[in-house]
Amino acid sequence: MSDEKGQTLVIIVFLAVISLLLGVSISLRYITNVRNITQSDSSSRALAVAEAAVERILLLPTETLENYINSGNCGSDCYLLITGSDGVNAEANITLSYLGNSSGDFNLFLKRDNSGEVSLNGYPDNTGVTVCWNNPGGDVPSVTALYVYGTVGSYNADAYSYNSLGSTHADNGFSEASAQFGYQNCFNVAGKVSPGILRLKSFYNDVTLSIVASSGATIPSQGILITSEGTVSEQVRKIEVTKTLYHMPTQFDYVIYQKSTTDALSN
Q: Which of 7, 34, 116, 122 is the 20 to 30 A CA-CA neighbour of 171?
C-alpha cells in the first residue's frame, strides 16, 4: 500500500513539473509575442513621427531653412512631440544641412535619357569643373552637358558630349572621356564669367555623376538635406529627405538647343 502511495506521489509531482514547464513555455511565448508587437508598434510610430516632422518643416520657405542652417539653430520647428491616446510619447528631432556648399565632390544620380541640373550660381568666374563617373553594370553610359553662363539678355551655352571609355557607341560622334581623380571617366568643363547652371543628361544607362570643383573652389549649395530621427520608447527610425533647388525638366534641353525663335527644333 505504501509503494502505491509513493508511486502516486511521484506521478503527481511529475505531472506538476510538466504542467509548470508547459505553463512557463506558454507564458514566455506570450511575453515574446507581446514584446514583438510592442516593438513593431513603437517602430511604426517612430517612423510616422519622423515623417510628420519632415512634412511640417517642408512647408517652410527655403530661405527660412537656410537661415536655420547658417545660425545653427531651428528651435521648435525642428522638434515634434506627439502623445498617443495611450499616453505613449513619440518625438522627432530634425537636423538641417546643405547639399553641396562644399569643396568635396557633389553627386548627382541620373536615370537613362533624363536630365539633371547643378547650380553654379556663385561659383568663381573663369574656374572650371570636372564631371566624372564610374561605369555601372550593363551598357556603359554616355553623358552630355550644357553649361549656361552670362547675364540677363546675354546668356550663352557651351555643349559637351562624352562617351565612357570602352563605349560601344563611338558612332554617335561624342568625344571620349578620360580617367581622372580616381574615376573611370571624366571630362573638363571650361570656366566662364558669370556661371549659371550645368545641365547634364545620361544616355544608354543610369549613372551617378560626381561634380569635382577646381582646387580652392566650392560647389555652391544645391538644396537642403533634412534628416529626421523619430523615437518611441527604445525604437529609433531615421529618414532623410532632400529639398532641391528648382530646376527645369528634361524638355528644357530642347529650348537651349533651339537656334530659331520661329521654327521649332530647327536644328
A: 116
Measured between alpha carbons, how far is residue 56 from residues 60, 70, 94, 95, 243 in Å?
A: 8, 20, 11, 13, 13
Pairing of strands 106-110, 115-119: unpaired
Identify the bridge partners of residue 90 per DSSP, sorted by sequence position: 82
* Residue-range domains of the chain with CATH: 1-94+225-238 (no CATH), 104-217 (2.60.120)
Torsion of CA 231, 232, 237, 240, to 10 degrees: -50
Contacts 24+ apart (CB under 8 A), 250-259: 250/113, 250/114, 250/115, 250/201, 252/115, 252/199, 253/115, 253/146, 253/199, 253/201, 256/146, 256/148, 256/157, 256/199
Distance of alpha carbon 49 from the chain centroid: 19
Rounded CA-CA distance 36/66 in Å is 41
- Look at residue 195 and tell me whether its pLDDT is greater than 80: yes
**Grid cell locating 182:** 580616381
- The tens digit of pLDDT for each residue in 70-88 reads 999 998 999 999 998 888 8
- Asked whether the beta carbons of 230 and 189 are under 8 A apart, the reply is no
User: pTM for this one?
Assistant: 0.71
Residue 165 pLDDT: 93
